[in-house]
Amino acid sequence: MIPSQMLKGVLEGCILEIIRKQETYAYEISKQLERYGFGEISEGTIYPIILRLQKSELVKATLQDSNSGPKRKYYHLTEKGVISLSEFKVNWQELDHAVNQLFMGGKEHE
User: Where's the Transcription regulator PadR N-terminal domain (predicted)?
Assistant: First the structure.
């Protein structure tokens, strides 16, 4: 299981990627994260992140009918969200490279 402090910094970008792949709702986002190996991430963790993403205008929500109960909020990326996700991916690759260099005994950055 990945410690929550480690997840905190990357969940936003991961949620953006899930939404980019397919318009979806919070419960399904938590289930997809679990399927990708993030462990059990509660909707209580997902909702505050989605609210931040909405306030930052990175995602928008639409209400859609549900097969099982009340309407659900489905989230999709805005143009600003697509740009933010692209920036996240670049930053992630840089961080991933730096950490791997450190752990694999690579050269120090000069």
Answer: 15-85
